[in-house]
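DM from R.C. (forwarded with permission)

"hey, sorry to bug you on a friday — could you get me a structure for this? deadline for the figure draft is monday and I only need the backbone to look sensible"
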Amino acid sequence: MFESRIHRLREKIAEEGLDALIVTGRKNREYLSGFTGSAGFLLVTAGGGVLATDFRYEEQAKAQSPHLEVYRYETPRDGLSRLVREKKMGIVGFEAVHTSCWELAEWEEDSPDIAWRPTKGLVESLRICKDEGEIQRIRQAARLTDKGFEHILNYLRPGVQEREVALELEFFLRREGAEGVSFAPIVASGPNSALPHARPGERVLEPGDFVVLDFGVIIDGYCSDLTRTVVIGRASDRHREIYELVRKAQQHALGEVGPGKDALAIDKGVREVFAAQGVAEHFGHGLGHGVGLEIHEAPTLSSRSTDELRAGMVVTIEPGLYFPGWGGVRIEDLVLVTPQGMENLSSSSKDFLVL
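My reply, with the result:
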């Protein structure tokens, strides 16, 4: 698995006219090597790959990355300088997004004979479509996330603080096998539900509140993402109207997902559903994003997207409507793009729930 990923990257490196690529992005390094330590870089050359790290992680690197040469350094700067000299490199690419100006200045000072070339998205372009092993991990993460939603429904009641709900949810998910949460859970009630990325606070749930629950887990390095919105105590006609409109928009988008589909067009379709009801200005974020080793990765589904969906991509579909001072609704599923269309990895109920 890792060998084939390295091989595909080497082909891209050759296409770019590079002798080597320094991989410093942590998740990119993990994708290519399996190494999960917090320190190190990967030097991929025409002949293979070298995983460089320090004393703390040398044995871990050897165990997790038997397909790579493991090189121990005293400092990353010293290690890279020695490696590029030993490998007789001429043109070396680096991940511009994951390299600071200060680091580049050090490399140029240490190895002035090297032509340092910025690159963008070489490894990410490999990660964008998941293989069967990755899909299985994401599917397991999605199942546990669904289980978490089912559990937390029994905990939602008037008088409970948002942060208490978030803590209970995270404790449950970890007890059930998550190695971590893929991001800090969002529990947003009442007016807070109109804030797409609200942080759980001391506000207590009250009758008539929308409560937005947005959370995910990590299983064997891979993330999941789910959002559901419920009502506490009693619901008005407006609660139901807004909820059903978001659910209708999401269902429309799900029906458009498939290989060869334009991500921008899917996002536009949702905005047209909202515009027909005069509420388009209350949907201010993108429709979705890729999920994998990171909770937000390529592709994107938004009004600025240039991506085309392909089989193997895992993306979220998460329209929402937000009304400041009153509340908001977001409904999010995690879906796999398949050769035939899509598979919804989220099975949590999307019924209009009043608890």
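R.C.: lifesaver. The two ends are 46 Å apart (CA to CA).
me: no worries. Residues 183 and 216 are 7 Å apart (CA to CA).
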